[in-house]
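Posting for a labmate who doesn't have an account.
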Amino acid sequence: MLELPAEHPGVGALLDQHVAAVRHALRSIGEQAGHTALLSYLIGFWDGAHEKGWRVPEPGHPLDFATLRMSAVCLMLAPAQTA
């Protein structure tokens, strides 16, 4: 997952936008972007996407909104695990 920017040129900016959106969403409910809040967000987002029929894109296919959003949260979790 952390190789997405290398595998998909231009995806770094999209991931940055998703990171900012997740931070904003958490702040709007009074949460910090810490490990627990990020995991809760990720689980909730995954559950909602799965209920709507989302599936992981096949290799070589474009990355969709859900994939980018969950990837951004995973990127945010990487530093949160060491904090």
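Reply:
Got it, the structure tokens are right above this. The two ends are 21 Å apart (CA to CA).
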